[in-house]
Amino acid sequence: MVIPLFDRSPSGIVFDAVGTLIEPEPSSTIAYRDAARRQGIELDPELVRDRFYRALAADDLNPPHGPLTTDESYERIRWRRIVAHCLPEIPDLDRAFSELWEHFARPSSWCVYDDVEPALRAIKRLGKAIWVGSNFDARLRGVVAGHPVLAETLDSLVISSEIGFRKPHPGFYLNACKLMALEPGDVLFVGDDPAHDVEGPRLAGLRGGILIDRKRRAAEQIPRALNLVELADRIRARIDHN
Ligand SMILES: [Mg+2]
Fold first, then answer.
1. What's the predicted TM-score (pTM) here?
2. Which of 31, 77, 161, 231 is least buried, going by the fewest C-beta atoms within 10 A?
3. 150 C-alpha to ligand 1 centroid (Å)
């Protein structure tokens, strides 16, 4: 028997962006390695990868208004610090930072997962509001606009640098509901990060979150779907059942 993901169908669904709808192509590791290579520095991708994830895990230093707050100028400071941490050997940090900042702003630096189009179109047909809720910055708007399936199916975006709070701050989720003009109990979050996309929304009083567990790594007790098509099927099944 398949356990229902929710007791009744939500009115609005907020999808995380990176790791849920899109992923960098080439990987962030290779983009950083190439930025160093353009300055004549050859780095082992494994070393860059290890530095990148360490830097991401320790990246909430000196935010503008307390823990898990942000804005556009802080995002630039934060990403410059991450580039400096990943590529300490390069002679020109400013150049590498602006190249990487612009690289990740381009739609062509990102690919959309195969299950996104069928799932989002199916959920759209069910009459649900579909939003993105992301800790990316304003560059995400250009990335979404450059991928027709996202531009056509998404109703709007909630971006941490624009609303001032980063996931998993409760302010992020509550502001998202306010922008969607929906009660928190009517909004479901979906994403690949258990803390940001499942636990955070639950603690903020939302309907909850569903983990997209593409690599089947999640603990048994976390509400999850293996991909977005499975999620869409289960939302439809819930509507048929009600
Ligand atoms: Mg993610």
1. 0.94
2. 77
3. 16
